[in-house]
Design brief:
It contains one helix and six strands. By secondary structure, it is α+β, with helices and mostly antiparallel strands.
């Protein structure tokens, strides 16, 4: 029985085979199930916490615990509600068209 031998690849053939293999793997990657969302994020502070602030001295604003309520401007309908973190930070996820 005669065995067939494959000819060795030159560098350009190897490069093309590698590119095709990467593309095949990349095309099989799963897309996220959820659409990418946008939103609002920030940090709530209260201050100044000192009644006297000198020139060139940064204000001593402190984190503030709060509930952030996002309402539709046209209808007044509540779209989202979130509690700030201990450092006053918050993030409200909203769809881009909301």
């Amino acid at each position: 029985m005669k065995r067939s031998r494959l000819a060795p690849m030159d560098s350009s053939q190897f490069l093309w085979a590698l590119v095709i293999a990467v593309l095949v793997v990349a095309c099989q990657a799963e897309l996220p199930a959820e659409p990418v969302t946008s939103g609002i994020e920030g940090r709530v502070t209260i201050g100044p916490s000192s009644p006297i602030i000198g020139v060139g001295t940064p204000s001593a604003n402190e984190p503030y615990a709060a509930v952030i309520v996002v309402k539709d401007n046209a209808t007044g309908k509540e779209m989202a509600r979130v509690q700030t973190g201990p450092d006053g930070s918050f993030r409200v996820a909203l769809e881009a068209d909301e």
